[in-house]
Amino acid sequence: MTDAPDTFAALARDYADFYRRLDAIADDHSPGAVWRRANRASRADLPRARKWKARFLDLDPAPLHNAVALDGMAPMLWEDAWHLAVALPQPGPYALEFEPDDVLLIARDGRAQMLGDPACAYIAPAREQERLTIRTDAKAWARDIALQRLEWWGLRRERRRLLQAEPTWVGEPTTALIMGPLAKVRWSDFRATVIEVPADLRQQVNRAVYAQAQLPRIEGRA
Q: What is the residue extent of each domain of the chain?
């Protein structure tokens, strides 16, 4: 009789082999192919990768719960510099292989760019919220994602204990990230009653929002 860990390991190898063959016929630089390579490389030494990601985000590398919090991120060498690759949407826990729609690359100084779309100016949550936090530091935004994953994990434990049910996994970030000029941000995409921004950007954001919302003046004529 085959032990469960052996069965899981065999399944993981089958998945990896399938996606290696898929990489061979897919665009080598597509978000999915790039993410799979970075993610597989990090899984070769999970403890080391977990500590690297935590230090990159200025987090304590010791806690084991970083394995859950940082699972949707991977170290990645891009243009001769190490970045943190963040899969979008985020993969759920226990996802052996995952095909993201996009990959965000975060540099050590907190700046970020979307893989294949360096002109992308912002990331907006798809769901409407009462209060929406906007970040301009991609590291802070990634820490929000890590916290979001941990909160889901805690809710999962509570639901399983009380209801024997799993909460729905939502891989979309709940905070927004601005990566480019404010003038390139389409503010109508941020569906929220209240938007929280860094204090030093408040006036600039107010002017940008007003400029986009300004209606033409109506004049009568004889």
A: 4-213
